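Quick illustration, no need to memorize.
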Amino acid sequence: MGGHKEQDVAWQGFDVADAVPLLLDPHGMVSSWTGGAERLLGYRAFEAVGRKFAELLVPDDAERVPDLVERCRSDGDWAGLLTARRRDGRPVAVMARITAAVEPRGRSSLLVLLSELAGSAGWDMSRAVLEQLVAGAPIGIAIVDTELRFVWSNAALEQFGGGPAGRRLGLRFADVQPGMDAEAVEARMRHVLDTGEQVLDYEHVGRVRSAPLRETAHVLSFTRLDDDRGRPMGVYYTVVDVTERHRARQRLALLDRAGERIGRTLDVVRTAQELADVAVPELADFVVVDLLETVLRGAEVPPDPLAGSDRVPLRRVGQRSLHKDLPRTAVETGAVLSYPVDSPPVRCLTTGRSWRQERLDPLALAWATPPGGRESTFLELGLRSAMVVPVRARGVTLGITAFFRRRQNPFDEDDLHLAEDLVSRAAVSVDNARRYTRERDAALVLQRSLLPRRLPEQDAVEVAACYRPADELTGLGGDWYDLIPLSGARVALVVGEVPGHGIDAAAAMGRLRTAVRTLAAIDLPPEEVLAHLDDLASRLARDEGDGESGDFPGRSVGSSCLYVVYDPVDGRCAMAAAGHPVPAVVAPDGTVAFIDLPQGPALGVGGPPFDAVELTLAEGSTLALHTDGLLAGGKPAPDEADRERLRQALRGAAAALEPSCRAVVDTLVPDRPYDDVALLMARTRRLHPGQIAVWELPADPAVVAEARRTSTRQLARWGLDDLVFTTELIVSELVTNAIRHVGGPVRLRLIRERALVCEVFDGGGAAPHLRHPRAMDEGGRGLLLVSQLAQRWGTRFVPGGKIIWAEQSLSVPSE
């Protein structure tokens, strides 16, 4: 059964006219060889005659020859597939027919007809079969002559325009398919005609007559047709519509661009604009992004947008248009728009689901109403198709994105899915930017509470400061600076650094800065201030696990600090350092030197006591206090070369202090520094001798009255008659206490600065205490009276004794 089936199939596809004949003798030896056989298998007649037919086949088929011969003798003939081997060893598939024959002399022989297979196994593609194949093919097929005029085309080509095949005859490509860049297509046809080179997979993107509003993509292939003499007859070409594949590739490319371009910054407005920029023109003609106002402020959970109103306000934060008249006729970026509660954008905002409409009602009013603007219809804006996609992240709707088209095909489901993918990617970035805005605002509030917003006004020094954090996201670091007014017109200049960056380092810095201000308030000398800070850092390390383990995030161990006290009365300057770079001094003549300051250990690490140095600065000298980030540039510690760079920067700085401070930082520090940087520059001043009055008083109670009279005369010279009464009382009480409780010489000093300072020096070592006497007590009210009359008062210890001081404000009280 199987053999007959094989034979039947073979006979159906066998074309005798194209077959190559040869004869075999009864033993299967080749006895006759023709020219056709030579062309098919490559053997010359003398090489083939006398050889076994089996030797002309591949081994598997050679083994079948005896059986085939027997079948022919019994059945008369056989037809089927064989694989012959050419003279060069190359196999060739042939359709074979073997028939028993009788020669004129009565000798029996076998007639073998061989036909090379050009197509699928068992099929000879006759003209009728080929015509049937190409006519019914689903791809467009056509043949043009050497003048590029149609001579034949199949029915599938009609889908690309141009009418039925009969109407095309004699026309050029441009006549029937003008939207496919006929000039470029015909140029390739001529190239194929001239060279014979086959052009495959030429992709063309454009619009055809059958879809004038829809961008289409086609792949064309061109092959030259030659006659039997090898002369070109024309070009055979095929057209395949690959629009869907092209659109899918466009979508992937668009999503790739979105991933690269959206969310490059932690800025809500910029991220929204990036979304609009990516979507135009690939997806839409006009795109707008509107967000809730609370999102721009970084609110965690936006309130119900429908609460108590029939319209919902949204802010336009991003938009992009392919046309010049949009968005001018709609609304400007940054404006607040009002949407009706029943409009598609608000429904998307409240439901969290997208919306699409293929054809907008041209006479309907556009949803958004600009502030003070005229409402427009979709016809006036030229908008025909629309999609609205909510901007959602972490289950919260932040706003909406609207996509519009004018002349393209209406939006379909694939366009909506693509828009949702784009918006979902952007929504994550918008949400990250929103959360960053909230966190950064909180961090900036912390920063403003930790670093001085502005340095206090005083007459001791002219100051300027510059701070550049390494953490550019929060703007926070562990470096700090401060200027603290002290008694007697003096000031304390402080620069410090806490290890690490960001909000944790800032929190630790805040604790140390608060401690420094507290210690400065009790007028401790620089070395004692650092000693108390060192104790604080060590105690925090023990109490809060802030040691080498680093378990406590805001650790203070290893922090550094430089504390400087400057007195404008005589220009004396005292300073001490705890693991901190020494300051530079710019003399009035512009020369720069670094102070020889003993370096104490960092805070909390233990070590020898802190030492202080004292020097006198000329008026107009500039102190430059800085953290190591100004010089180190990522190195463990600054070296002499770094100091030389600072020396040159200070020497070339401007005369004005504020621009000079920023110029030094810009010169030495990149925009994104490796470490936090703080620079505090202070130009020294001296109080005029006429602002100071000093009297040495003997330890005699009778001198108190003279001290009052002397003070009164001095206030009159200064024009401070309004303060005579209170000053007399303060001087009387302070001088009396010094004489009564200490004895020895007393020195009275008045300083007229921004406040009137009254100081009394004595040789005692005990600090006075403010008492609250009972009604029947005869004394003990002196310091209580001073505290009521003075703006502030206190005690500071100096070599040889102490000074009790009181300040009175010189500003006019507000009414």
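The longest helix spans residues 413-450.
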